[in-house]
Amino acid sequence: MENKANYALIGMFVVVAVTAVLGFAIWLTGASINRQYDTYEVAFDGGVRGLSKGSEVRFNGLGVGEVTNLAYDKDDPNLVLAEVQVTENTPIDVNAKAQLTPLGLTGLNYIEITPGFDSGAPLMADMPGRGPKRIVGTESSVDELLTGGGDVVVAAQSALARANMLLSEENLATFSSILKNVDAITASVDVSELEASKLNDMMDSFKLAADAIAETARSIEGTSDSIDVAVKEDFKALLMKAEDTLKTVDTTVSSFDGTAQGIDEMVVDARGAVNRLSNSGLTDLEETVDAIRHLVTTLGRVADGLEQSPTQFLVGAEREEVVLPQ
């Protein structure tokens, strides 16, 4: 009986120990049978170095899930789609962004999801232009630096090549010669040769020039004041003349108005005279025109006679001579 009792106690202890270990493991990993998850796709344009299945997903620095799958987009192979599972009710909206973030110096990355500046509507499935709960992802700053590192190295090499050309032996010799010439010129100048009297004369000349400039400035200021006063007076007189001119124009316009009325009356009176002339004087005018026409015809015949025989026209026809018999 005692051996059988010991085996039963040992079996019960093993079962309790295994159960405790499993419970501790579940508690340690934070797993829960009833925990619900939301699935999203994070689209990266380019490679995803340091990211793999099981990589952590954080929201504002808090761990909310993990990467469950990595694949490229069948329609666009340049896009890498990372399928992530995050805790249910994580406030991911339509303005959310995802970025690869280095995990210390390990070379591994995790996905950091940040909400937009303006809180938008929750990101739902099958939204137009985004796909099934798709979040736009960007590379990490380290990856961007490594991507652009090639261009930086090329630029650095070009700069070093130019520096080597600048510091060539020929250029160094030329620069050394220039320094020697400058040293020789400065050595040939004796500062003691500068006389104090010349320096004083120069200072006095500068002082006189400064005084002259100040006097000129004062003169200009006085002249500007005089011009200002003159302009104001002339402008005032001009305004008065303009006012008188406007009055004269007004009077002239009034006189012209009266003259226009007189002309209107004269036109009315002349209209009656023209009507009378058209009735009674038209016949006289026709007779006068006929007389003038007859006079012109007569003058034409006289001109023709003068042209053919002026002497005969003036003296008359020659008389016939009669010869008497002897």
TrEMBL record:
It comes from the Bacteria. Keywords: Membrane, Transmembrane, Transmembrane helix. The keyword Membrane applies. InterPro entries: Mce/MlaD. Residues 38-116 form the Mce/MlaD domain. The chain crosses the membrane at residues 7-28. The keyword S-adenosyl-L-methionine does not apply. This is ABC transporter substrate-binding protein. It comes from Litorimonas cladophorae.
